[in-house]
Amino acid sequence: GENVEQHPSTLSVQEGDSAVIKCTYSDSASNYFPWYKQELGKRPQLIIDIRSNVGEKKDQRIAVTLNKTAKHFSLHITETQPEDSAVYFCAAFSGYSTLTFGKGTMLLVSP
Amino acid sequence: DAGVIQSPRHEVTEMGQEVTLRCKPISGHDYLFWYRQTMMRGLELLIYFNNNVPIDDSGMPEDRFSAKMPNASFSTLKIQPSEPRDSAVYFCASSLGQGGSPLHFGNGTRLTVT
Asked: Of A20, A64, A81, B32, which is most buried by a Cβ count within 10 Å?
């Protein structure tokens, strides 16, 4: 089955800096890659997703890039703000089963 | 739409007791998922349904866990008997279609078994 590795497990940045979270996947058939944000005590919520026919997608301060050859995808957050502090999960879908989630990255943005 | 609705939000019970968690998916969504979240294991898929039919329950930890979906608007996850190691946050999620569609999570049920 699919295996998703996510790094780093924790990330601390200063407000205004950029943050990058990286994920790798194992199944070359995977074709859908969403990112979820989970604030403390709340539910995971989709923030951005990308499909395998696209290399990059942006939505205001967040962007996701996908390298199918290397089987990795990344989340980029620019001009970070304290409200970006949360746990971020990447996931991959290969078409055979369900989404496989990474272990999560705890992002802390300090004022 | 009110989103995925789970109840209760919090459940505290004693070891050995039966626990029932409830979920109402978003109307029209044909997939329903039950996840368990802990610090150690992250988000674990327990079971999922398609059109009310269980498709994959390989993530259910053991026979103490069971899940049902009697109709398109209701699902339950039952633990009997409960154990302290079952303490976790249980999320229900639904989607329109499989995989390539966004998952919508409920607010979760925080279960504490003493």
From this structure: B32
